[in-house]
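Reviewers of the previous submission asked for a worked example of the structure-prediction workflow described in the proposal, so we include one complete record here. The input consisted solely of the amino acid sequence. No template or homolog information was supplied to the procedure at any stage.
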Amino acid sequence: MGHQRISAAACLSALLVLSIAAPSAASATPTTKTQIAGVIDRQGVPASAYQSVVNGWVVQVNWADVQPAAGGPIAANNAIDAAIATAHNLNTSHPGLNARLKLRVYAGTGAPAWAKALGGSPLQLCERRATSCGSVGRFWTPEFGVAYADLQTKLAALYDGIDVVREVAIDRCSTLSAEPFLRQINYAPNLAQYRASGYTVAADQQCEREEIDAHKVWAQTRSALALDPYTAVNPTTTSVDEPFTESMMDYCRASLGSLCVLGNNGLRDSDQGPDFDAMYNAIKAHGAPIYFQTATYSRLHSLPATLQLAIGYGAAMVELPVGYVHLSASQLAAPDTQLEAKALT
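From that input alone, the workflow returned the following structure tokens.
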């Protein structure tokens, strides 16, 4: 993708020059972009045979790669720039394609070493049975919060005005995935580390509010909150607090309005229990904009059924699992159209 990275810088510079030169840019109220909608590829650029239907994708990049120096600028010619150039090239070469992007800049394990050291040494967290582990900074601390807010301010300054960038993930409080409500409470060594490092439920819940507020700098681009039944590490116990998750739906909409996209990163066509049922119904009750990412392909009984479930919950966009190519583009066309019809403008 070397030629794309070179063209990204030129493309981005031209767009920024145009936005600065526009006579009404300084005085006009920013216009919210149309919500990214339909079925999109959550790993990157979809294969050409699918681009007529799967015409959006997630740009996955680590915070460490876009802001390597503490408090520094966003790195030039990064993966976001390359994706923007690719989207513009596709739209130019295929009129009517309307390629669009969602940015997922990973905090958690994706944060730079300097951010992971803020407020104290990082934690070494693992999923159940240590199947996946990683280094995570003290995300609940004020120092980490200031750094995350600085990152969002600098990202928004570069990309909020770029039309193909339609959504960005909220994830300051995330750990091993871009899901800020999960604490991997089923692995005992994690609990010991949280309790020894100054973590408290009160500080964690304040982190959840502050990560949303940090996205107010995105004036035109929607910010997506990946919801799960909230898991907490108490002094001697752990707990699951789904009502807190619902309170954060209210907070996100109060803070960001229609720029807050509510969703979840593990939708599947099988029962996940009453906490998930309550959460999904609350997402639906809050109304658009809504998105979902499906669970991994192996956990789905049926991808078409899962897409219909997302549509029933009010989603306008679904991030497809790796393996969606088991279906043809024509099989994805109908749910794509149903999802697109629900996009907010």
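The domain at 2-10+36-336 is CATH 3.20.20 (TIM Barrel). We consider this example representative of the routine output the project will generate in years two and three.
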